[in-house]
């Protein structure tokens, strides 16, 4: 399978490397030439535009930051849909609103192209080791077609249901992770007030029944969320807002988890809790 990859950041870069190392004919495109430098030692082709990349691909993987970026690389004048052949597939690895994927899937269908959503969780180290969690929304046949590529960087690769359900799963994952960050930080802070050695408590909590990915991250950061604000907070804030919007549209109750997530974001930014 010929694969195109757009979005060579801290997570997308290792994903693309895994695809290349698995032997797939791969084409890359990036806004910034510097993003392509780490791939100079690979056989991957470089494209001048998303459309040119799409012309060389059967499957195009997109791992950019947000909804606007996805829209731009797919539907712009020189976007993926301008170059992808009929029968081609687009996999959106970015974390975006489920409705964005559903709407873009409808638009892609007019070009004879299938779009699925396949957000991932685990970060750059997990991508490099091939153990990302991949949450896929799409028709079973299309998911099966893409699975060999997804399996180069993902384990497990989980089919969640129709288009949009992968995004729903990722948003719920992220809002719970954000809420867990607040609980982990508050627990370690309470231990400090009780005169318990912070490093020792962090070691116990990370390795005991209270252990979690969030606890590991907080413990590694010295027991606080101080180091999360610059990079993680804007992305997590975006996802909490998306969950709030999706839940409100569905008439679902999400106040408990989003309030806890808002507390974590406030700690990161040293401001009053808010998810609006």
From TrEMBL:
Keyword NAD carried by entry: yes
Gene3D superfamilies documented for this protein: N-(1-d-carboxylethyl)-l-norvaline Dehydrogenase, domain 2, NAD(P)-binding Rossmann-like Domain
6-phosphogluconate dehydrogenase NADP-binding domain location: 2-161
Domain annotation 3-hydroxyisobutyrate dehydrogenase-like NAD-binding: ranges: 164-267
Keywords: NAD, Oxidoreductase
Membership in a protein family: Belongs to the HIBADH-related family.
Protein name: NAD(P)-dependent oxidoreductase
Organism of origin: Streptomyces cylindrosporus
């Amino acid at each position: 399978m010929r694969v195109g990859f757009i979005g060579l950041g801290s997570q997308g870069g290792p994903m693309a490397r895994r695809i290349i190392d698995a032997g797939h004919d791969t084409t890359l495109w990036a806004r910034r030439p510097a993003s392509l430098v780490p791939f100079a030692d690979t056989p991957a082709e470089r494209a001048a535009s998303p459309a040119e990349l799409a012309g060389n691909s059967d499957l195009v993987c997109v791992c950019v930051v947000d909804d606007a970026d996805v829209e731009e690389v797919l539907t712009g004048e020189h976007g993926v849909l301008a170059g992808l052949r009929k029968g081609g597939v687009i996999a959106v690895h970015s974390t975006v609103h489920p409705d964005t994927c559903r709407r873009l899937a409808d638009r892609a269908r007019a070009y004879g192209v299938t779009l699925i959503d396949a957000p991932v969780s685990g970060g750059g180290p997990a991508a490099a080791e091939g153990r990302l969690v991949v949450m896929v929304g799409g028709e079973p046949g299309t998911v099966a077609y893409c699975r060999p590529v997804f399996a180069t960087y993902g384990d497990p690769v989980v089919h969640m249901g129709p288009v949009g359900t992968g995004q729903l799963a990722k948003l719920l994952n992220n809002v719970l992770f954000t809420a867990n960050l607040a609980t982990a930080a508050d627990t370690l802070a309470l231990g400090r007030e009780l005169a318990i050695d912070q490093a020792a408590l962090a070691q116990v909590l990370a390795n005991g029944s209270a252990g979690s990915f969030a606890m590991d991250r907080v413990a590694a950061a010295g027991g606080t969320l101080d180091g999360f604000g610059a990079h993680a907070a804007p992305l997590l804030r975006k996802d909490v807002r998306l969950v709030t919007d999706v839940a409100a549209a569905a008439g679902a109750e999400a106040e408990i988890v989003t309030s806890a997530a808002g507390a974590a974001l406030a700690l990161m930014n040293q401001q009053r809790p808010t998810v609006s």
